[in-house]
């Protein structure tokens, strides 16, 4: 069963061959481990970034506290009574970080078509934080409130009696808030009066 090797030179060569194979196996295992560790590190970094972005898309959004409109006898040149401008009071959602209103995108979708613009485009939009002093347009706290005005007549966008309009506010993080504006079938009020929508 066991063969006796009498030649001493052959005995040494077998040992060196085994050692070379062992070292090669260790090197292959080390390279494979290095690749696995690098891949795991990359995946962890990517998962953390994805988690942060997902959290921002859910939490860093605006809440619409109230919405109203200003009556116009000639809504956007349509010759009909309607809404000349929209006014929203907004706040940052619970758990949101700082929300820069100048980077918020507004999308209007209704019977007069679709319009998209940012809140720093004047006209049609203006925004002002009225709960704190200063020129900053950044909501830093959940108690901060801002008035956002959308001048429909400057676009022009006709919003007449009985119409409905979907307004979507999208922050720079990609979080969206959608609200629906419904104009009463009979607007009570004179030109320039404010009505709750």
Explained architecture:
The protein folds into two domains: 50 residues; 136 residues, Immunoglobulins (Immunoglobulin-like). The chain is built from one helix and twelve strands; from the N terminus they run αββββββββββββ. Strands 1, 2, 6, 8, 9 and 12 form a six-stranded antiparallel beta sheet that branches. A four-stranded antiparallel beta sheet has the order 5-4-10-11, with no helix packed on it. A two-stranded antiparallel sheet has the order 3-7. 23% of the residues are buried. The chain is an alpha+beta fold and 197 residues long.
Give a short summary of the structure:
This protein has 197 residues and is an alpha+beta fold. Helices cover 26% and strands 35% of the residues. Strands 1, 2, 6, 8, 9 and 12 form a six-stranded antiparallel sheet that branches. Strands 5-4-10-11 form a four-stranded antiparallel sheet, with no helix packed on it. It has a two-stranded antiparallel ribbon with strand order 3-7.
